[in-house]
Specification:
By secondary structure, the protein is an alpha/beta fold. Bound molecules: (4S)-2,6-dioxohexahydropyrimidine-4-carboxylic acid (DOR) and zinc ion.
């Protein structure tokens, strides 16, 4: 007898949608068929769609370190409420993940808090932890991130969002020689080196200029961190990846210039992949007047032509998948002046609904969602048990109601500091049930898992 059955659903894969039942045994998908079989627990989903649990490889859950902003419990609860069953935690926490020892410590720490399955990012600080990378990679880190473009607080490893050259005790992004060494080392491990792609020197020069001009409007912020900053870094990184054979991943892509460079690099056979985020697909500079400073994220949201190029890139495969860059801050911190507030906002819970709404608007299909929110990330990060509704995979499933209409509101989010630039958007198409390895964990926006049940994915 099966453990669980979802009956009378429409099963969504990355290529098709078909009417079927799904049967689960020992946390895995055991059978997908129209045969009527018995199970200990049965849900008649009655013509609703069943998607693979989404994968969000880019989450800053702030734990440990700044748990007044988010912690791993609230963050992973927000994830499952949004139909995301696998998350990767970003390494800018305190302590950070610089070595195999740090990784093991964080994995143990999270095991008591996780409501979603989780991977853990490592942090590359150039020569400061170059020697640690081989063992870090061999110990099961998901990938390694390099914050090209940020000054980092030397003590806490916190990102400095508004860097002042007078700041002391900071780690500045290393020069290209050191990055070459980093890429060479990562190539040997076979793991992904992912970059925050912004050219720090260009940003510094333009920010200084801007401060002198006295401008404080949103366009001024974009002028100080333009598409050129992203493009310069992607171009350099792409050449370094070609020379060293490293697998380069571009995080949160934001610009048409960036899309064009990646398209070319892929055509030339560079091992390069890319993601973009909902904020870059659904917002552009013209939204600032209505949305306000909470849409400040790094890299900054750019112009309408960039937004359209990112959709084009996602459609033609230049951009491989989506991730949220979930990066909460204190609600109070996000209300200040544009140039001094931190960058980042909540995102893990609203990514799937925003995309489901696009299906109802006729822009995309459900199989497209299965591809860019689950399948492609699983393939790229080699998550063998995740990413699709296939026999033998983990039974991570999301039942969605394509008729349900509701508005995104800050106070409906599960994050500790619920604040999103998408508040007030009416959405048709919502996740109504989330299953993690065959266990119902969310029912109608209520977390019903009564204990942390997420596992580390090495
Ligand atoms: O907006 C952002 N916030 N961009 C990043 O690169 C980091 C993130 C954070 O951790 O706050
Ligand atoms: Zn990020």
């Amino acid at each position: 007898m099966y453990d669980l059955a979802l009956k009378n659903g429409f099963v969504v894969t990355d290529t098709e949608v078909f009417r079927s039942n799904i049967y689960v045994k020992d946390e895995k998908i055991a059978e997908i068929s129209t045969d009527d079989k018995e199970a200990k627990q049965v849900f008649d989903v009655n013509g609703k769609y069943i998607l693979p649990g989404c994968i969000d490889t880019h989450c800053h859950f702030r734990d440990p370190g700044v748990t007044q902003k988010e912690d791993f419990t609230t963050g992973t609860q927000a994830a499952i409420a949004g139909g995301v069953t696998t998350v990767f935690d970003m390494p800018n926490t305190n302590p950070s993940v610089l070595s195999a020892k740090d990784l093991q410590w964080k994995a143990d720490y999270f095991s008591k808090k996780a409501y979603a399955d989780y991977g853990i990012w490592g942090l590359a600080l150039g020569k400061l932890n170059l020697d640690e990378l081989p063992t870090l990679c061999a110990s099961g880190v998901s990938a390694v991130k390099f914050f090209w473009g940020y000054a980092i607080n030397a003590k806490t490893k916190a990102l400095i969002y508004n860097y002042d050259p007078k700041d002391t005790d900071v780690i500045l992004p290393p020069g290209d020689g050191e990055v070459y060494e980093l890429f060479s080392e990562m190539a040997k491990t076979g793991k992904i080196i992912a970059i925050h792609a912004e050219n720090n020197e260009l940003i510094q020069t333009l920010t200084d200029k801007l401060k002198q001009s006295g401008r404080t409007d949103y366009e001024a912020l974009v002028d100080s961190r333009p598409a050129l900053a992203e493009a310069l870094t992607i171009q350099t990184a792409s050449l370094l990846a070609k020379a060293t054979g490293a697998h380069l991943h571009i995080l949160h892509l934001t610009s048409k210039m960036g899309v064009d460079i990646i398209r070319k690099a892929k055509a030339e056979g560079v091992h390069i992949t890319a993601e973009t985020c909902p904020q870059y697909l659904f917002l552009s500079s013209k939204d600032y007047d209505t949305v306000g400073p909470m849409m400040k994220v790094y890299p900054v949201i750019k112009h309408e032509e960039d937004r359209l190029a990112l959709w084009q890139g996602l459609f033609d495969g230049t951009v491989d998948f989506m991730a949220s860059d979930h990066a909460p801050h204190l609600i109070s911190e996000k209300q200040g002046p544009l140039f001094s507030i931190p960058a980042g906002m909540c995102g893990v819970e609203t990514m799937l609904p925003l995309m489901l709404n696009e299906v109802n608007r006729g822009k995309i299909t459900l199989p497209f969602i299965a591809k860019v929110l689950a399948k492609n990330a699983a393939t790229i990060y080699n998550l063998k048990d995740k990413g699709s509704l296939t026999i033998g995979k983990d039974a991570d499933m999301v039942v969605v109601d394509m008729q349900k209409i509701d508005t995104i509101e800050n106070n409906k989010l599960h994050s500790k500091q619920p604040l999103t630039a998408f508040a007030g958007r009416e959405i048709q198409g919502w996740p109504i049930k989330t299953f993690l390895r065959g266990q119902l964990v969310v029912d109608n926006n209520n977390i019903i898992a009564n204990a942390p049940c997420g596992k580390w994915i090495k």
